[in-house]
Design goal:
single chain; mainly alpha; hpI Integrase, Chain A; 3 domains; 3-stranded antiparallel beta sheet; 21 helices
Amino acid sequence: MKAREASEPWVQSLRTFLRDSVGPKWQVREIRGKSYLAVRYEGEKRVFRNLGFTWSRGNAAQIREAVEEIYDLVVRKSISLEEAVERVKKTKVATPKTAKRANPKALLNAWEKYESFKVKVAGDVTQDTWNKEYGKTFRRLKEVAAANANDLLIEVGKKYEPGTRSRQIRVQHVAAFLRWAVSKQSGYLLPEDAWTPPPKNSLGDYVGRKSKEKQAQASAPTVVIEDKDLLELVDSLPIDLDTYEKKHRLRERAMEWDLAIKLAITYGLRPIEVSYDYLEVRKNSKEYMFCTYAKRAGAGTTKPRRLFPLHPEWEQKWNLMKRIKQKDPLPKMTSGAGDSFKNYLRFNKVWKRLKEQNKVVVYSFRHSYAKRGHQIYKLSDTEMAAMMGHTTQVHNQAYAQWSSESMLEDSMKRAIKFRDLTN
């Protein structure tokens, strides 16, 4: 069969053309019905690369063009043979016509197995985090249909504005899922040819770029709440209502949120950390608050940390350690921690005023803690990052605006004073 095919006019014509065009060391061969490029390097054996075309007369022109383009990339642009072949295959080889729509059951069934793998096998994600964050991705996955990884990532991102965090997270979730679904770990649940996504650091086109308006918002100073306004907000909670039946539950909820807000502003907690799942009192030489929450992100996992009150008098005045030790009720945050804070405060007059004046958000409690640490307590970025449970790099991205020259001068004065006392 091979001898007969090699003698066919179209094969001879193709090989003669390529010999004249790219030289005798670049040839094409048929292997198991596929078109292969065979390149002989100086002093080395011949290297074979699959061009992705069926070996047939109808594909002769495409095979010839592909070889010429690969040759140009390798010889004239110094690109590796492997990369050149992949580039040309992406542009020359048509996507397999598996279906106009993907089988939604195959994708969704694979997603369910991915959940089990992430939560129960790898342990990368807690069930609560999966339900909250990956649940949003799953709902989006059910809304779209696609025939391959490229189309799926495009469709998943379309619902969100380009460059936004929501779009980035959904795209990253789906890409990570697809990498697993075409791998040995999953048992090759999805076919590799159609469903292999780009590498981790190559998702930029699917995430897109923020609009100028969004870029301006992202670069705007972090919004904080001044101490006097925080205290006014705490005092505005309706914990002094009469306890007759109609208002009893309102007072109960106010007591729960009174504790939650005081914890958030005193220790700079993330909304999700305001929970008995993560908060406890520990004792070494003395008692102190501790948070066991470990945030998992692309850069790694943060460590549990000791909590330091800013201001210490708030911790004492509000009996925060005692209330945690005796497990005074905290609000049930069934809609997600951040949304639960927002939903409770949205009708509060003080909160509404702060939102209108300064566009504060729930994370402003945490931002205020950072500003307090830098400007009042003169703590360094490294110290504040450790106290808040993130890296110094992440801390500076959000709070570098408060590391002013005057702060550095104060830090140097303290450092010199410490040196003189210890020498």
